[in-house]
Every structure is written in structure tokens, then in C-alpha cells.
């Protein structure tokens, strides 16, 4: 006669509640750190896709760190192409490559920090603050013409991202 041996059954009282799910304190902290890193990178990269300056004349031109887009004609001019154009360039447009260089350096500095090199997050924040200053110079120059209005979005966006990146890197009380 075959009997059922209960000792072969798995003991439910010995199972851990956190096996297979990420609810242990260490995995929650690791998950939060990973999520925070992703959000910080998305905030930093947002400066590359949100226009730095919106220029309104009879049409609308969006100025990015990499180039411009004229919305009505959907014409794109990349920054290197713009800089290669012959003829005099207004002095305020020098802020554009300066801001783009500061942004590229901020990305490189943050990348160095992400791979474990000793890169201080305050440098990234300072470079992003410089992007905001460059946007002020650009929009002030574009705004001189009475038939043109410039809205410096990066003047607000870049320092907000810079401050948030700087403050978000501070250690938390529960870590």
C-alpha cells in the first residue's frame, strides 16, 4: 500500500517572502538608485531635444544645441553648417557654439562619472548653468530686432536641470 509521505512536500513555513520578487531592502535601494540614474540621464539629455531659444518672426525657428529648425519650411540647419557660412556673423551668435560646447562637455563629464571616473557633479551643474547664460545672450541678441521675439527656454531649463542634478546626487538619509 502506497502511502503519501508528507516529508517530501515542500515546507511552506521555510519559504522566504522575498524570493523571486524585489522587495528586500537591498534590492529596493538598488532599484531606486538605478531608476534615479536613468531619470538623471533623461533630464540631462532633455536639453538636447528641447529648444534652447524659440525665435518668432513671421515664422518660428527653434534653436537647439545641434542646429536650428524653421517650422514653416521644415528646414534644418546643423551648427557646423551654420558656422561654415561665409560672411560676417552677429556677435551674439557666438554664444550658440559656446553653449553647445558647454553642453557637450557636461554630457562627457556625466558620462565619465557614470563609468566610475572621479568626476564631480558640480562641474556638470556649472557647465549646464553656462548653457543657461549662453541662452540669455542668444535671446538678447535675437530680441533686438523689433519684428522678432526670442524666448530663452534654456535660461530656465538648463539651470533647473543643473540644480536638480547637483542636489539629486546628494546622499539620502536612508542610504
Automatic annotation (TrEMBL):
The chain crosses the membrane at residues 38-55, 95-112, 124-144, 150-167. Residues 20-173 form the DUF8050 domain. Residues 1-11 have a biased composition (Acidic residues). Keywords: Membrane, Transmembrane, Transmembrane helix. Residues 1-32 are annotated as: Disordered. It comes from the Archaea. It holds the Pfam family DUF8050. The keyword Membrane applies. This is DUF8050 domain-containing protein.
Amino acid at each position: 500500500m502506497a502511502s503519501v509521505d508528507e516529508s517530501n512536500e515542500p515546507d511552506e513555513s521555510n519559504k522566504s517572502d522575498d524570493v523571486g520578487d524585489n522587495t528586500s531592502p537591498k534590492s529596493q535601494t538598488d532599484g531606486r538608485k538605478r531608476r534615479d540614474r536613468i531619470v538623471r540621464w533623461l533630464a540631462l539629455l532633455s536639453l538636447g531635444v528641447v529648444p534652447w531659444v524659440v525665435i518668432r518672426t513671421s515664422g518660428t525657428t527653434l534653436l537647439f544645441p545641434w542646429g536650428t529648425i524653421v517650422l514653416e519650411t521644415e528646414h534644418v540647419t546643423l551648427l557646423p553648417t551654420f558656422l561654415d557660412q561665409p560672411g560676417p556673423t552677429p556677435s551674439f551668435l557666438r554664444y550658440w557654439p559656446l553653449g553647445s560646447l558647454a553642453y557637450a562637455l557636461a554630457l562627457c563629464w556625466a558620462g565619465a562619472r557614470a563609468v566610475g571616473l572621479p568626476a564631480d557633479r558640480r562641474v556638470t551643474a556649472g557647465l549646464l548653468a553656462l548653457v543657461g547664460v549662453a541662452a540669455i545672450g542668444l535671446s538678447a541678441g535675437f530680441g533686438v530686432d523689433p519684428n522678432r521675439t526670442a524666448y530663452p527656454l534654456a535660461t530656465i531649463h538648463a539651470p533647473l536641470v543643473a540644480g536638480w542634478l547637483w542636489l539629486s546626487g546628494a546622499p539620502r538619509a536612508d542610504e
